[in-house]
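Annual report, structural modelling task.

Input specification for the N-(iminomethyl)-L-glutamic acid complex:
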Amino acid sequence: MPCGDLLIRRIGRLVPMTGPPIADAALVARAGRVAWIGLERELPAAVGEMPSVDAGGAAVIPGFVDAHTHLVWAGSRRTEFEARLTGVPYDGGGIATTVAATRQASTEELIELTRERAAAALATGTTTLEIKTGYGLTVEAELRLLDAINAVAADVPQRVEATYLGAHAVPPGRDRAGYVAEVISTLPAARALGARWCDVFCDRGAFTVAEARQILTAAAAQGLGGRLHADQIERLGAVPLAAELGCASADHLDRIDEEGAAALARSGTVAVLVPTATLTMRTQDWHQARTLQAAGATIALATDCNPGTSWTESMPYVVQLACLALGMSVEEALRGATLHGARALRRADLGHLGVGAVADAAVLAAEHEVDLVAHLGAAAVRDVVIGGVVVSGSRPAQDPSPDQSSSASSASTST
Ligand code: NIG
Ligand code: FE
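The model returned the following structure:
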């Protein structure tokens, strides 16, 4: 995990998420954490020499926290995708196609495919990734996916949180009760392999509310936090369950109603919306954010990156859809993609650039964060900083020039 000292200079607009945006700003990171933010002309002289990056007047926001991905898979779902274009609805049945292809792939192939997706996410500003298993669906195959997630986590700069989603589908040919028992019996091994979360796809054609309750209760006893795929296809009662069990998040929520939204608001369970999945499912139902906002629920945004319903690694694209289709404001959408994504992972140190936070940031390819939404399909992010280290971008990794880094000690530096 990168961890360094860094000065980001000449920030046209710093959007810390913990307070109002700051114009003509600078940010100082020390040992991977935000040590100072403010007007560049007030930069403390005591900052001294450190590596620096020149934002050149661009906007800087916290790195994106993508709190819902299914990043580990092999194979394609293009036949299903084309069928959807002719009006065939999504019913979760395609998961079996991906399970078959994923079981056939070698662990090395899975690691490479996942690493490539994490790299694509990094290029679009994602600094934290939650990654679910769920395309193995046997004890060995699921644990192998956790091995792959661990290998990727060790190799990419992003922070990774692993989620065990053995309860993604009842594998073809398996009896339901037997498979639920198997998922539960796998929890200790999943925990031992570093999984922090357990998720269940609780929906028509997947797992029932009673099964989800059984699995998530057992998961909690093993120290795994709960998350729930809820109300994606049908409103079965998954949302009240997530609220009752105190899950960290309830995700998808395409069918959320006022009662469910109120339950999430009361329990503090973060509502994770995945508008690219809504788009790909072609249901054209975009009421979710409005319903949740009216109830006062906390909304996060995530990619749901997966081969069947949401093939994207791009949080900027998710934010664009959140504004243009879900009707969120730019501020709400960016907060959802950063601060509230972190909240969905119960991480108070991520998703903002307040002093003390982990110094994960994206230097936008624009002078204002609204342009990230308005400029559709553009490369939205120029440089990515993780733990105070520039890890990706169009510029030299760090600015070695002594006259520029010494400007860190000059209070008179200005744009
Ligand atoms: O989040 N809804 C369940 N799981 C995934 C899709 C899985 C698939 O179709 O491969 C989702 O949309
Ligand atoms: Fe999902």
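Residues 68, 70, 229, 304, 306 surround fe (iii) ion (ligand 2) (CB under 6 Å).
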